[in-house]
Amino acid sequence: MGESIREFLPELKKHHGIYVMQRTYEGTCAFLSGYEAGSGRYTLRDFHSWLLHRKKGRPELFWPLLVLCEVYCDGSLPDIRYFTPEQDEQMVTVLFDLLEEFFRG
Question: Closest Cα partner for 78 from 92, 97, 58, 87?
Answer without folding.
Answer: 87
